[in-house]
Amino acid sequence: xxxxxxxxxxxxxxxxxxxxxxxxxxxxxxxxxxxxxxxxxxxxxxxxxxxxxxxxxxxxxxxxxxxxxxxxxxxxxxxxxxxxxxxxxxxxxxxxxxxxxxxxxxxxxxxxxxxxxxxxxxxxxxxxxxxxxxxxxxxxxxxxxxxxxxxxxxxxxxxxxxxxxxxxxxxxxxxxxxxxxxxxxxxxxxxx
Length: 192
What we know:
The chain is about 70% helix and about 0% strand.
């Protein structure tokens, strides 16, 4: 019996199934057919929503980024959190999101274009939200930065590059952020 679903519901189901299979089998080893079989639908249905695997992967990355952004917005809108706690929690959201979805970061060797999409998407997201947070830190006197926007770009892109190079210990990244922003050592990690 054929099950008809609302297009957005079906599209979300495809994205969730694709992400799960990417994490189980790897992106390179997951075919559009695998996704269709797992869902119990015809492969043509997958192609109806996504013209190619690359388009599907890009949509999975976008969906992933939207989820991270939603978490960060919720965190930043919470009342009563100190600047240090907010900053630590934003860093934590990024690290946990990446650690919980390693397939998102495993695109590197065979498809550098998709990897750059992931890196750019997460970096832009971090820049957008951390900019507001850093400006608040400067206004409240927690930070003394002459060029906060430039410092932020250096931090975000530098951390992303270090992560790609295999430096995945949040302690290292927290210490680097503390040093770059002139915060006391351990300020962020104790909030982690």
